């Protein structure tokens, strides 16, 4: 598997695991709220290069 494909697959896996964690009793939802956007924005093509996902629309 190419390095970029490995990174993409690993990031998707982490997002899935984070989603499962968020549904668990006692999950730290502040952690989920901070980490999930960071993982999502690291996926290629998620946002245009000039956008800032932290800004409110």
Largest beta-sheet characterization: none
Strand share of the residues?
under 5%
Report, as a whole number of angstroms, the end-to-end distance.
37 Å
- The count of β-strands is 0
Instruction: Tell me the overall shape.
Output: flat
The percentage helix is: 55-70%
Give, in order, the helices and strands.
HH
Average pLDDT, rounded to a whole number, is: 84
Number of helices: 2
User: What oligomeric state do the depicted chains represent?
Assistant: single chain
Q: Low-confidence stretches at least 5 residues in length (pLDDT < 50)?
A: none
What are the key terms here?
mainly alpha
Summarize the structure in words.
This protein has 57 residues and is an all-alpha fold. The protein has two helices and no strands. The protein has helices at residues 3-22, 29-41. Helix 1 packs antiparallel against helix 2 (29-41). The longest helix has 20 residues, at 3-22. It is flat and about 35 Å long. The N and C termini lie far apart (37 Å).
How is the topology of this model organized?
Elements: H1 3-22, H2 29-41
What is this structure, in a nutshell?
58% of the residues lie in helices and 0% in strands.
């Amino acid at each position: 598997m190419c390095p970029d494909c490995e990174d993409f697959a690993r990031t998707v896996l982490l997002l899935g695991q984070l989603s499962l964690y968020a549904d668990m009793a006692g999950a730290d939802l502040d952690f989920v709220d901070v980490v999930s956007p960071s993982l999502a924005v690291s996926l290629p093509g998620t946002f245009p290069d000039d956008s800032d996902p932290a800004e409110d629309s």
